[in-house]
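Sharing a chain and its predicted structure for anyone who wants a worked example. Both blocks are below, sequence first, tokens second.
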Amino acid sequence: MELFKSMDNLDNKEDSKKTDIKETEKVKCLIIGSGPAGYTAAIYAARANLKPVLYEGLQPGGQLTTTTEVENYPGYPEGVTGPVLMEDLKKQAERFGTDIRWGIATSTDLSNRPHKITIDNKKIIETETVIIATGASAKYLGLDAEKKYAGMGVSACATCDGFFYKGKDVAVVGGGDTAAEEAIYLAGLCNKVYVIVRKNYMRASKTMLARVEKTPNIEVLYEHNTKDLFGKDGVEGANLIKKMGTPEEEEVKINIHGFFLAIGHHPNSDIFADYLDRDDVGYIKTIPGTSKTNIPGVFACGDVQDPHYRQAITAAGSGCVAALDAERFLSSL
């Protein structure tokens, strides 16, 4: 009996080893992410004959696939929907030979070249160059209504969507510089802008706070939290909870058509944390004027390394830079 038990244990160990075996593939250029940055990098890399392989990630097309109308992307005078824009970029990348695949990068080993990227915990891509275009995810309050009204009044980008609320009343949630900047931007377009701040003060810099206070159509609602949004075919208003300085609270209703989140973004860079230099928030640091990271052969583009602009066109431009940097790196080997 003991002999058979031992043999069973050996069999189990062999089976476990088999499940740990990962398929390996070697490529010249691996692109992780499929938003404007990733697809543009793919277009340039493919045209340079780098034979890029691109993995789309959890959200093929990135954040723009949740945007209905995009009117500020060059080349579309009548505007375009986010999903159509991303599909156009994808087709263009494929036209030049990019191998676009479904899959998620789950771990990395950037200690030596070729760099090793594990896809879906089962396949290892060994690559001479890595272009990281994993983007950043906007932070939300966690309300069901945020999903319900996505693209119908709820937005995480005032400069992207503010134009659609020209002459209307809107609200911005947040108390930092980003919220102040977005409120000031929207004030130039909208009839009135509420700034919903959960504390009794704004964390924004004194300069930004002074600009907010001097803007006549901005009203700051201190010590207010958003309880819910309402509306039939889109956002028509928000129910807020106002702190009264006592255990009692008061419910306040504001009529708005746009609800803008400005409580921050989280760059999708965690799997690179052991190797790449990042700032305090998690944005990957690149050498100014380039897409180069602290590791040769590894490049970052788009929102994963851009805490300031976060526009489709700036992401696309940085994707071009990353592909050119990758091409030059390979030609120098």
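Comments welcome. Residues 16-137+265-331 form a domain with the FAD/NAD(P)-binding domain fold (CATH 3.50.50.60).
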